[in-house]
Amino acid sequence: MTHFMIDVETTGLNPGVNHITSCAIVSFELETGLYGEDFFHERLRTDFGSRARNADTIGWRNQHGMDKAEADLAIRDSVQITIKTINDFLFRNSSEDVPIVWAKPAHFDIAFLESYFREVNLRIPWSHRNVRDLATYLMAAGHDLTELYDEIEFSGDPHNALHDCHYQILLANLGYQSLHKN
Predict the structure, then answer these.
(1) What is the C-alpha separation between 158 and 169, in angstroms, rounded?
(2) What is the CATH number of the domain that holds 56?
(3) What is the pLDDT of residue 86?
(4) How many domains does the chain fold into?
(5) Residues in the chain with pLDDT < 70?
(6) Structure pTM?
(7) Domain span holding position 64
(8) In the prediction, which pLDDT does 66 show?
């Protein structure tokens, strides 16, 4: 598969300052919306580097039971190992030399992961030319995002990174179908 949907949950909104608490990556085919058999979904250690927790975000996470929801996810001994595992996952599952990564919005999820790759001194496994922003894609396909989110039912737990990826893949395929009808 060529395309990968990425979703992260965090302790704040600043990729260079705040932690990723969980990350999901699902390979998929844009044309069909089919998922790959393998996926990545893990919790990340939050004792990494000099990163911080944003008090407002932590309050929101507590209010929505985020820590409890992420408690059952696997967690590795170090963030370095987790980022290396993400790198390996992308290359093991990509049918291309350079994977195409998607997120909603790309400037958030992708920026967080890129900051982690830089911090552990690993080359970012995708090219800036292969980053896709789902919201922009859907708007270019003629969709009103507010209406679309109301029309297409979300299945699963909100802010569960894996469930968010599955929903976003459904939306990406809908955008593809809209652009390629006739």
Answers:
(1) 15
(2) 3.30.420.10
(3) 97
(4) 1
(5) 182
(6) 0.94
(7) 3-179
(8) 85
